[in-house]
Amino acid sequence: MALLEIIELQAQVEEKQILNGINLSIQPGEVHAIMGPNGSGKSTLSNVLAGNESYEQTGGNVLFDGADLSELDAHERARAGLFLAFQYPVEIAGISNMYFLKAAVNAIREHRGEKQLDAMEFLDVIEDKKKLVKIREDLLERAVNSGFSGGEKKRNEIFQMAMLEPKMAILDETDSGLDIDALRIVADGVNALRSPERGFLVITHYQRLLEYIVPDFVHVLVNGRIVKSGGKELALELEEHGYEAFEGAAV
Amino acid sequence: MDINTRREEAAAAFAAKGLPTVKEEAWRFTNVSRLNEETFDAVWQAAEVSFDPLSDLVVVFENGKWSVEASSLDGLPEGVRVRSIMDSADARLGTLADSDSGFVLSNTAQFSDGILIEVDAGVVLEEPIHVVHLADAEGGSFAYRHLIAAAAGANVTVIEEYIGSAGVRYLTNVVTEAFVADGAKVDHYKIQRESAAAYHFQTLESELGGDALFSNHAVTVGGRLGRNDIRGRLLGEESEAICNGLYLLGEDQLFDTHLFMDHAVPKCQSHELYKGILSDQARAVFCGRILVQQDAQETDAIQSNGNLLLSRAAKVNTMPQLEIYADDVKCTHGATIGELDEQALFYLQTRGMDPQQAHGMLTFAFANEVLDEVACSVVKLRIEAMVQAWLAGVNE
Question: Which alpha helices (DSSP H) does chain A contain, by range?
């Protein structure tokens, strides 16, 4: 059974149709990349999958681990093992990263029927995971994403992913705003989390990220539809020729 | 002028003027006329209200009077004097709180007790002084007069806490004057958890010398009708005033904060962060005025007031006011009234928190931001617990 099965997905935001029938099947262990120009529907897709209520699914189906995603609210999707790394992680003043993570980890553990981590156990897990994305100690004490640099925010997203251990992770333009060093650190973190059970959907505008997170499949998204799918070499083709050829084809 | 003459004059002025009315600009949104129709009497009796001391140095006032039995000042170091204001004719009394507000006049005329804290030059008192005010006398009128004087380079932390017995109706009217000399540091906290039927008014006046620091954190959850007038004068260069506050209001509570910061000299900073959370039909008034005088070049003043409304019937009037006569200054102000951020709620939900948890966490975060600058850890823990308890009450 596919981990994530997207069938003829249509969606709109503010009454504007953005996704026009997307089909995509991701098996456990696979890394899929979706590439597309601005306005192609990349962010809409990630928001619809994560359950953002500002986006409305108007047609089609999405099955996650066999369950109909449209039946689940955002927090239920997260508890079921779906994770979205935000393109623009939200700053939350007044709550430390640590406190926030503990609440998130325990909400998900409770759902899985696992016992809540006490303060010491939680610190052990933190120690273990923070090496993955080389996150600085002081960022854990600071308010969630508040005053973080672009790179620190993205690292924090991957750190959260490591802490929450999802079955399926969607990375929404995680490369945007990153310099090459930050990109490498984030990619290393993601690669360390690749496993035969876990699926990834990497959404990006540029091929650069895919040099570091090498996908099994690449899909081209134009005007809310996947117009071409292929192996990792498709990313290079796009890099060379741009999206223009596909944009014509999609009309 | 000696204190007795001052008190007599204040009594005469109050008799002529009375309490402020809504015709006065500063009281436009806060109608205190009901106080004229209700009766309050000074009733000095012991109070049966429990409290948790936040320090080994505790002064307890019960229904208007210092309780020697309940207070403890053991271990007060040399160079620090703490005594009743009634035992001392301190010449500084009333020199800061010189406004003609009816509440100040009435306090000057009628105060029945108060604390005088003097810290000698260069003396650093690590232990905070916890000044507790307990009230449980129905119809009581409690007028307290406090004075804090930190001499050059001195350092002291004072916590004023007001606790009332649930449902008891009374009036607390406090005036606190703080003198912060050159290089001195005074951290002042006010925790107001009066009874829900009580009235509470305080004027807090501070005066800072050069390179001095005065911080005030005012947290309000109690009282049916209340107001804090917090006024600071920066009279020496390179001094800094921090006035932060949090008000958590429900039912038909009305709470008013009036801040006034007077930058008279160059190179001073003032930071004011106020936040409010309102449910039910609660109302809040915030007026923050910053005056930068012509000489006060290189002033750095920041003020913000944020309000979170949990109900449609709750209401806030917020009025930031900058009055700037110097040309080389950095001043910002801002006010917001709103609901929780949708994108932040979504973010928390994608991390597994259900909508109620996400709401609770963001509401707590909103309030908690005010506590960032609370240096005194026991105070921080106390306030955090108060915020959590208040939020739990709202969600019931």
Answer: 42-50, 74-80, 97-111, 119-130, 137-141, 150-164, 180-193, 209-212, 233-241, 244-250
> CA B77 to CA B122: how far, in whole Å?
13
Q: Which residue has the tokens 């309102």?
A: B278
Query: How far apart are the CA of B349 and the nearest CA of chain A, in angstroms?
Result: 4
Phi/psi at B128 (nearest 5 deg)?
Answer: -70, 155
Question: Which residues neighbour B24 within 8 Å (Cβ) at sequence distance 6 or greater?
Answer: none
Beta carbons of B351 and A100 less than 8 Å apart: yes
* Distance of residue A222 Cα from the nearest chain B Cα, in angstroms: 26
List of chain B residues whose C-beta atoms are within 8 Å of the C-beta of residue A94: 364-369, 372
Give residue A251's pLDDT. 42
CA–CA separation, A141 vs B122, rounded Å? Answer: 34
Q: Given an 8 Å threshold on Cβ–Cβ distance, is B369 in contact with A94? A: yes
The CATH number linked to A134 is 3.40.50.300
The pairing of strands B269-278 and B299-309 is: parallel
Contact assessment for residue A127 and residue A101, using Cβ atoms and an 8 Å cutoff: no
Is B361 in the A-facing interface, judged by CB distances under 8 Å?
yes
Chain A partners within 8 Å of B362 (Cβ): 92, 95
Interchain CB contacts (distance < 8 Å): A and B: 79
Per-residue model confidence (pLDDT) at position A250: 47
**DSSP label at residue A114:** P
pLDDT in tens, B136-173: 999 999 999 999 999 999 999 999 999 999 999 999 99
Number of domains in chain A: 1
Q: Nearest Cβ partner of B353 from A83, A93, A104?
A: A104
Place of tokens 């916590």: B159
Strands A67-68 and A55-64: antiparallel
Share of chain B above pLDDT 90, in %: 91
Domain assignment of residue A122, given as a range: 4-250
ipTM metric: 0.96
How confident is the prediction along chain A (251 residues), in pLDDT tens digits per residue?
899 999 999 999 999 999 999 999 999 999 999 999 989 999 999 999 999 999 999 999 999 999 999 999 999 999 999 999 999 999 999 899 999 999 999 999 999 999 999 989 999 999 989 888 888 888 998 999 999 999 999 999 999 999 999 999 999 999 988 889 889 999 999 999 999 999 999 999 888 999 999 999 999 999 999 999 999 999 988 888 888 878 765 44
